[in-house]
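hi! just following up on the protien thing from before. the input was this:
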Amino acid sequence: MKVYKGAILTVDSNDSIFTYLVEDKGRIAYVGNELPEQYASYPVENVPALCPAFCDTHQHFASFATFNAGLNCMDARSNKEIISMCRDFVARSKAKLLIAFGASPYSVEEHRLVTREELDSVSDGRPFFMVKYDGHACVVNSALLEKIDDKVKNLRGYHPDTGEMNQEAFFAVSDYITNSVAIPELIRAMKQAAAFEASRGVGMVHTVSGVGFPLNLDITMEKMFGKLLKTGFQIRVFPQSMDTKAATIRRLPRIGGCFQCALDGCFGSQDAAMNEPYANDPNNSGVLYYSDEKVTEFCKKANRLGLQIEMHAIGDRAFDQACRALKAALDDFPREDHRHGIIHACLPTEEGLDICGKYHIQLPMQIAFDNWPQEPASYTSELLGEDRNSRLNPIKTFTDRGCVVSFGSDGPCTTPDPMLWIFKAVNHSNPNESVSVQQALRMSTYNGYWTSFDEKERGSLEVGKYADMCVLSENIYNVPEKELLRVKVQKTLLNGVEQ
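and the predicted 3d structure came back as:
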């Protein structure tokens, strides 16, 4: 048993702040302003502030683990720097297959992706797989192209001259890479990733799984990995498949994600599906991967099976498709507490907003995408025009419609960083879409646990719940909005145990 004294930010229904919290056997035994006599003899730890552990509601956990163990180029500001990083990585890596992540044409001075030839110059003849920052495209070197050429040369998105692969070609390359990763190696990387995320204050991740392993082995593996972890770190698996058996045969209550459940591409590859053409290309409106009929059929079947559904939609046309399909499914078979969601939901429409409000569609959003270095506002404005650009990631608009918004990293696209989520939500690039610190903390904690039906056990600091908590360096409710990034996670406790 342990007593904590400080600013206890409960994130309960009233956003109560108390002075004391008592943890006993991994659960919260008491919260309040006066310490009851029965706890007076127990050790007291003074803390600046205590809040619930954070929840990352959209992440590619196995992929994040793989890239977290490899080379991350996201902070590079030139392709010259990226190639230098790759050269150093090749020199120290003994891997037969080299994997890196984070190249962007928008955050480097050359304003283009690295090329196949540039990777060839440093790869020592080994296959090299460089994934673009958005996780929807990659660049391969000649050694890797030779191995996968027959698998991808007839697919959309195949560009052997530069080595860039996107759309269906990218998915095929990803499947090949997935099958090349040794399982023991992946398990080690997943353990390291879970520890890293806990150090950032994350106590639960919602992982979208199913990226090319035979028999969807990675879905089974992530489910078992989550159950076998002894640290208290929680994993909720979404099979990203439109075959409902991927969930039902594993007795998983949810289905969805990206890859097979992605309705469109992304802004970075200019294939997010749009109702109007891109501002910089009047002949391009992006790509819808499926017909309305196919998406609706999937949603109806999954909904009737009692599954929770989530689907990737970035462009407004894809968002509308997701909304209409979920509406059709719930009209076909009404459910009171389904918690279906639309991932990303970057550019909603009035039609879609009305459906989300009426049918209680929840939104696992990526506020870290708001004017991020890999896709800055200067780029998205050029791509979408000023009006559409100003409507990106409208977290307050969704909240005002009564929708539950939660935050996720889309890792490895961004590194899980809940304090950054809070900062960006409070300091949105469109001030009309900014929310309060209390709302931002709720979106980063309670709302995430609610999204996976875990709110009765986790997500707020209330009596009876698991003692999944973060010690913060300051009470974020008292920090000026522009200075929120100075607040650090000093310690994470899961089931009352320091990680």
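The chain has a mean pLDDT of 94.
The radius of gyration is 22 Å.
cheers
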